[in-house]
Design brief:
The protein has 281 residues and is an all-alpha fold. The protein contains nine helices and no strands. This is Zinc chelation protein SecC. InterPro entries: SEC_C_motif, YgfB-like, YgfB-like_sf.
């Protein structure tokens, strides 16, 4: 998976069309519904989008053979050599369906990468990152009364909540890649950003004041939630820049202890170290 070239001047960039339009999003919803007929716990696309965004922000580039089974399979990493095509996951009906999902996934991946690497000053800019978050409460409130009645008693997620849960699902499954850096300032930067996203995983209990589903829809989301959503978006930018600036974690190389001069040589010759490999030490 290769990222598209990042935009460097959002102020002069041409208007951007979303990589996934309404038709593609409907296609993804239909595809994921079909996967649920063969596998349990296949998430919504909103959850997938949060998961995808976290992967783009993760310190180590995680290969598809590792993350795809975590999202749509049993979690076991696929045994595939680098550069080789992925084997078919059981949830997909055939190779063509899996290839189409990955094609749409790559479109969104490249779009998010370009947006997070763009120099934006406002979330109103064309190149600003926007999570594919759904206002389910607004969508249900806009339904006819008889259809709303059928959903009474069901727990409806808050605006952006499912997206944030998808993001945190990736964080929780690769904890070593999200471990706090030693630098105190960087560690605080990480904590503050994560707090902003975790806040979005919580329920919106404020007074409904705006509708994020349609401009003229009945109020479904609190103003505080809208502000929390904006803070979470900026937090994603911070996380992307933090890990890009630090680079992948470097594994320390453990140096084997040198034998004493009168100890048996570690090469297995049977001689003392001082008369074998340590003769010239």
């Amino acid at each position: 998976m290769s990222a598209s070239t990042p935009a460097t001047d959002a102020a002069t960039a041409a208007p951007v069309t979303s990589a996934l339009g309404a038709d593609e999003l409907d296609e993804l919803d239909t595809l994921l519904d079909d996967l649920r007929s063969r596998a349990e716990e296949i998430p919504q696309w909103e959850f997938c989008d949060g998961f995808l965004t976290a992967l783009i922000c993760t310190r180590r580039p995680i290969p598809a053979a590792e993350y795809l089974p975590m999202l749509l399979g049993d979690g076991a990493e696929l045994d595939v050599a680098e550069g080789e095509p992925l084997p078919l996951l059981p949830a997909f009906k055939d190779a063509a369906q899996q290839a189409r999902f990955l094609e749409l996934w790559d479109l969104r991946w490249n779009e998010v990468t370009a947006q997070l690497d763009a120099d934006v000053k406002s979330l109103d800019e064309d190149m600003a990152f926007q999570p594919e978050a759904m206002d389910m409460r607004g969508a249900i409130a806009a339904l006819p009364e008889e259809e709303r009645a059928d959903m009474e008693g069901q727990e409806i997620p808050s605006f952006g909540q499912v997206w944030a849960l998808g993001f945190m699902f990736a964080v929780e499954n690769w904890p070593e890649d999200w471990a706090a850096p030693r630098d105190k300032e960087a560690a605080q930067w990480l904590d503050d950003a994560m707090d902003a996203i975790v806040a979005l995983t919580e329920d919106d209990t404020g007074k409904p004041e705006v509708c994020m589903y349609t401009e003229d829809g009945p109020p479904s989301t609190s103003q505080a939630r809208v502000e929390t959503f904006g803070e979470a978006i900026w937090a994603v930018y911070d996380l992307r820049q933090l890990w890009k600036s630090m680079g992948p974690r470097v594994e320390s190389i453990r140096k084997e202890a040198t034998p004493g001069r009168n100890d048996a040589c570690s090469c297995g010759s049977g001689k003392k170290y001082k008369k074998c490999c340590g003769a010239n030490a």
